[in-house]
């Protein structure tokens, strides 16, 4: 029984056949440190990978550099260029076989100066973050009476009051997917009824006067009005004032604008496959972040989890049968621009992808993986993930994979989303609080362990996760 | 058995004597609403007070007005004057027998414009709040290399590095009392070694990029250097950068200054005692707040808990034997200036105070009371508080009472601190997150219930809590 087959056989069957004992005696030649002599060590691949990951601070240390020394990395900006330079250097030093960048063209959104102030009934300043893609106000800002609503439905029922007003959406938190609709589509919904600007309560379930930004989009047919997130605290106060009949007025000034396209880059690194270098297992995070906080959980963590996992295999001398390709995408926060650029540049090799994994749910304790692929593949991944049970990271279910890998998944590549126990994620998400102090080194190491174990199993498996050469056979079949 | 005696007898003895049944049949004449006819109702005073408080939203509604409509109320400012005007009107409308203001002279501290920016190794903005009483910087600010230390001890051991630097204290949270020493005394400790400014990690055990301000004081013999709190996030990042050898530089600009004394006011309201109007039970909160957030827990809550408790007794027709005096102090946040002014103005009546209660631990679920008085008084208060057991508010222990009533307590008046289950208090304390949305109406009502019950017991008790007329006999005896 070879180490490759344990993946295919599955843990239960392996145990029945006494494979576990055999595995414990299985010997590979591996070098644990670059420059050291290769040593022969007995190991169980999964548990050995897990143990090595849990004893390693590499991902944590590099994530600290990225967050603290580079800082926030808004797509297309000078800081993102600094992050890309750091990324190339770091990936090279980590010993990947090849490291390169691939161009991504993207419109450059600039925040500019921004402020908002209640001018009536009593003046007070609002804490805000303009939303990504928003237009700015005229110089000096816009002042108007506020219309506070809790939902799209309430806006529709009060549509006659919206003209000439600034609409504030103050929706109760009902989970991210439900609540983020106001951030994404609030401005055009308000513009449809003649509003001159739109404010949105920050999309979070916990606030200490913390604003949360994020992407918005305009409907083509409607006027583009400026839009910003304000804090839960300010939104609540304005709603209460309005309910008491105070008719608040707000002056909003935003210097936001979108400049012509600039060139930026995805960063790619590879460990060439030992036997089938033409087969690719892609693992990705996104290097860009919002310009507030330092992009620690979103998504410095995903970059270091995937890269840290691949590097760990290298360090352990576990070069897998297939190629492991790490991609750190640009401009995920602006709707996956980097992911689409990668897809376009790699259209001719789609039949080479065994799977694509994306890690973009922070460095909270690992849970497992959600999979966009047919049920046979989900079942194989469930088997591969069983050794992660002790990490409480063995949950594999059908579900969303990731924004960046979506074009690949739509083209038929099995998509795997790395999942964490992210109950606190939205406390930090897109806010100044998404910083390195929120990263628990032990949880980060457990994520590296989980992803390294699964990537190794996929890249090493005797039979590929799906029939290679059929990538374009069923485009969009997983969505 | 009279209702007054139940307090003295204690719950256990009362139960043994069947007093509880008698109390249930005890009848008083009381009007439950101004303008309605007095009605005769059977009641148990404590439980009737508690039930009435739990069904009443008065305190919550008024606290909403204070926080949302008046907003932050920095001592001596125009907003504090607006709060005082609101207070007088509200207390009058609540039906107190008399409402008046008493002058408080205080130096006016102005925050001015303030910002801080790391200039090296990579520029980024710091989120800060200048500390109350701090001087400002010269125009354009001060730029210097940072010396990051975790403690006074580390500063002393690195004293030679401090000259010409900005010292950042980044102490680990070890409870408020221990950690706040850096806010209060960090600047002079740094100035002693030639530092040009001082930054302090915000004094809190939880942060979402939230700065926390508060009072500081200068040692007379040392240069006054500007000082501000920065967020936990920024402080941690700077410490990590320094540990990695990055030698951060910071430019700090603060427009803070202290203007000559201005006149402001404490606000006082009274329910005259039914039989002994000359005996005073004082209950207090402080009306001033910091200029960030809206002073909801600190200490709008204490104002409305004490006042709401007294008003509730009025509404129930339970005018107690002794006078209940509500004081809403000015300038507690600047070291209890209002409390000292009140004491000076009332020196000639110190022998009239039966007790002084202060509520300044927010509107979290009630816990009980901590008492600065001799053990006999603590025991009597424990007995009086027993009916609060169902509210989980019956804990009475020796301990700190309050900043504002401290001069009274030092002069021998029994001091009572209202205590809540304030585990989350420092998440909000002195920060933009101390806002009305953090107030739980049910917890607030329970606090009103607890304070009203205790105040009634003290003001109604057959025997006063201490021998009246002996107030100045043992000055300072409780500290």
What does this entry show, briefly?
The structure is a homodimer of 479-residue chains. With 479 residues, the first copy, chain A, is of the alpha/beta class.
Oligomer: homodimer
Let me know the largest β-sheet of chain A.
8 strands, mixed
Low-confidence residue ranges of chain A:
1-38, 471-478
End-to-end distance of chain A, in Å?
37 Å
- What fraction strand of chain A? 15-25%
- Secondary structure class of chain A reads alpha/beta
User: What is the strand arrangement across the widest sheet of chain A?
Assistant: 3-12-14-13-15-18-16-17
The 3D shape of chain A can be described as elongated
What does this 3D model show about the protein?
2 copies of one chain form a homodimer. With 479 residues, the first copy, chain A, is α/β, with parallel strands linked by helices. Helices cover 34% and strands 25% of the residues of chain A. Chain A has 15 helices and 18 strands. In chain A, strands 3-12-14-13-15-18-16-17 form an 8-stranded mixed sheet, with helices on both faces. Chain A has an 8-stranded mixed sheet with strand order 5-4-11-7-8-9-10-6, sandwiched between helices. In chain A, strands 1-2 form a two-stranded antiparallel sheet. The radius of gyration of chain A is 24 Å and the shape is elongated. The model of chain A is unreliable at 1-38 and 471-478 (pLDDT under 50). The interface between A and B is large, with 36 and 36 residues.
């Amino acid at each position: 029984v070879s180490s490759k087959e344990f993946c295919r056989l599955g843990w239960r069957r392996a145990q029945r056949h006494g494979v576990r004992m055999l595995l414990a005696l299985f010997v590979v030649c591996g070098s644990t440190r670059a420059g050291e002599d290769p040593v022969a060590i007995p190991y169980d691949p999964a548990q050995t990978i897990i143990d090595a990951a849990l004893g390693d601070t590499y991902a944590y240390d590099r994530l600290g550099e990225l967050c603290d020394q580079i800082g926030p990395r808004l797509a297309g900006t000078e800081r993102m260029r600094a992050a890309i330079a750091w990324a190339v250097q770091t990936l090279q030093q980590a010993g990947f076989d090849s490291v390169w960048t691939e161009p991504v063209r993207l419109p450059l959104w600039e925040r500019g100066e921004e402020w908002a102030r209640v001018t009536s009934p009593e003046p007070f300043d609002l804490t805000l973050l303009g939303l990504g893609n928003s237009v700015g106000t005229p110089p000096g800002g816009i002042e108007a009476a506020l219309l506070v609503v809790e939902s799209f439905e309430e806006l529709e029922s009060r549509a006659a009051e919206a003209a000439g007003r600034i609409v504030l959406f103050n929706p109760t938190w009902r989970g991210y997917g439900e609540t983020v609709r106001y951030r994404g589509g609030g401005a055009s919904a308000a513009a449809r009824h003649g509003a001159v600007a739109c404010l949105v309560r920050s999309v979070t379930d916990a606030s200490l006067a913390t604003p949360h930004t994020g992407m918005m989009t305009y409907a083509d047919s409607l006027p583009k009005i400026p839009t910003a997130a304000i804090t839960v605290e300010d939104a609540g106060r304005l709603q209460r004032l309005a309910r008491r009949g105070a008719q608040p007025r707000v002056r909003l000034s935003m210097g936001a604008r979108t400049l012509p396209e600039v060139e930026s880059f995805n960063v790619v690194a590879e460990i060439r496959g030992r036997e089938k270098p033409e087969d690719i297992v892609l693992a990705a995070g996104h290097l860009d972040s919002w310009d507030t906080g330092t992009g620690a959980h979103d998504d410095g963590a995903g970059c270091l989890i995937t890269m840290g996992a691949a590097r760990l295999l290298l360090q352990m001398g576990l070069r897998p049968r297939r190629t492991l390709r790490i991609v750190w995408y640009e401009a995920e926060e602006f709707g996956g621009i980097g992911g689409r650029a990668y897809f376009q540049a790699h259209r001719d090799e789609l039949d080479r992808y065994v799977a694509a994994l994306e890690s973009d749910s922070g460095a909270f304790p690992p849970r497992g993986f959600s999979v966009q692929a047919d049920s046979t593949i989900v079942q194989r991944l469930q088997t591969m993930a069983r050794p992660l049970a002790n990490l409480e990271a063995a949950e594999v279910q059908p579900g969303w994979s990731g924004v960046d890998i979506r074009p690949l998944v739509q083209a038929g590549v099995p998509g795997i989303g790395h999942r964490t126990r992210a109950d606190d994620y939205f406390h930090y998400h897109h806010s100044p609080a998404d910083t390195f102090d929120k990263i628990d080194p032990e949880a980060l190491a457990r994520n590296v362990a989980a992803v390294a174990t699964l990537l190794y199993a996929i890249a090493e498996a005797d039979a590929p996760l799906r029939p290679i050469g059929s990538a374009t056979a069923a485009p969009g079949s997983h969505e």
